[in-house]
Amino acid sequence: MQELNILRPFKDKIALISGGSRGIGYAIAEKFAKKGAHIVFTYLRSRSDALQAEQQLSSYGIQVLPLRANMGNVEQLSNIFETVKLKFGKLDFLIHNAATGDLKPILDLKDEEWERTLQINLKSLFICAKAAVPLMQGRHGKIVSISSHGSNRCLPNYAAVGLAKSGIECLSRYLAVELAPKGINVNVVMAGTTVTESLKKIPRYEEMVHLAKTKTPVGRIGHPQDIANVVSFLCSEEARWIVGQTIIADGGYSLLV
């Protein structure tokens, strides 16, 4: 039994992962499932991707609950946590991963595009954190968000998303200070350039990949599993002393560029 606990340290814990049907979100879900956690993940558009993810994750012998939700819709976010409460009655990990945004120069952004980007990326963390805390009481809960270099660097056409990511990092610091006395850890992972389907939709994608490969000391572009490994560590008992930090996971890219 002790060996089983070592291999599956998240056994019977509950993880809620936004945007968990593909990319970094799915890699995180799979990592946690392998460690024994039951998985609740949100998705927005592709039901087929969600069903495939559900089937794959279920093969690890855990419960999987896919929920369609727009992270910018407060009512839908509330329904997610009501569902988690009814089905499990508790929550151990909240992984704020789902992200989207209009990629345009600042002056070309419409008001509604600006607002939508902030709602889906930043406001949703605020709403989710408030809903998660009651379900985490007494469970040493963990809240981990995914950020990017655009939070502190000016990337082409990334203004709205970059601002939202910067806000996520700032909000996480405030949450960390207020929630630490409750035994809840809050941190952020700043992901470097990582191969996902979403990345391929960004303008100058090929240029970004080439730059990442040539300028990263490790000598390659990031993979979703690289980010999942860091998130998993931050949710482990060994990381309890890490509070309110933004951990850069980019293979050393930011040291040289």
Question: Please, could you describe this protein's structure?
Answer:
Helix 2 (23-34) packs across helix 8. With 257 residues, the protein is of the alpha/beta class. The protein has a seven-stranded parallel β-sheet with strand order 3-2-1-4-5-6-7, sandwiched between helices. The relative contact order is 0.13. It has one domain (2-248): Rossmann fold (3-Layer(aba) Sandwich). 46% of the residues lie in helices and 14% in strands.
Could you give a quick summary of the protein structure above?
This protein has 257 residues and is of the alpha/beta class. It has helices spanning 2-7, 23-34, 47-58, 74-87, 111-136, 159-179, 205-215, 224-234, 253-256, and strands at 14-17, 38-43, 64-68, 93-96, 142-148, 185-191, 246-249.
CATH topology: Rossmann fold
From the 3D coordinates, which CATH architecture would you assign?
A: 3-Layer(aba) Sandwich
Ranges with pLDDT <50 over ≥5 residues?
Answer: none
Helix proportion of residues, in percent? 40-55%
Distance between the termini: 47 Å
The count of domains is 1
Tell me the fraction of residues in β-strands, as a range: 5-15%
Find the count of extended strands (DSSP E, 2+ residues): 7
Strand order of the largest sheet: 3-2-1-4-5-6-7
Q: Count of DSSP helices?
A: 9
Instruction: Please state the structural category.
Output: alpha/beta
- What's the shape? globular
Order of helices and strands: HEHEHEHEHEHEHHEH
**Mean pLDDT score:** 93
CATH superfamily: NAD(P)-binding Rossmann-like Domain
